[in-house]
Amino acid sequence: MYSVELMVEEHKNILKLLTVIQKACCGILNGQEVDDGDFRKVIEFARNYADKHHHGKEEQILFQEMTDRLGQIGIKLIQQGMLVEHDLGRLHISELEKALDQYKDDPQTAFKLGILTEAMGYVNLLRRHIDKEDQVVYTYAEKNLPPDILESVDQRVKVFEAEADQNQVQEIYLKTLQELEAKYLD
């Protein structure tokens, strides 16, 4: 299924970002300065690629079909699982931004701790979340949604992707990811 394959590929990019975040946090623990600019890039990637772009497709298309068509199991899986975790991820990113702002204004250890806490909270949440989606949610959708609905999901995802491509979403954020990987993972 095109849309699931695409979402799994996007997960690989998000996982790379999570590794970058962890390396940046370890660097801080090892005495490096907080690189405000790099953490702002992480926030931008998380909000615009991971959330608006990737979660946008899930929430507006695939998850909507699952809650509409797969009964209580679909509703619980999505509304009480995946959507709650999406919101928790947004909270971690918002709190990370707040901690960065506080640290920039007053570089005290408590604010540095907030940066590390929220950044790693996001990393740990998203790693587990991605594993659940890849291993359970997407598989359940492919096995239980009717073929015509799966085809409709694919078509709507293609339209979503085409619009994102026009706005250069993938190009902009994958370039940012490459820059961060070159700095933190090489």
From TrEMBL:
Residues 4-140 form the Hemerythrin-like domain. InterPro entries: Hemerythrin-like (IPR012312). GO terms for cellular component: plasma membrane. It comes from the Bacteria. This is Hemerythrin-like domain-containing protein. It comes from Kineothrix alysoides. The lineage of its organism: Bacteria, Bacillati, Bacillota, Clostridia, Lachnospirales.
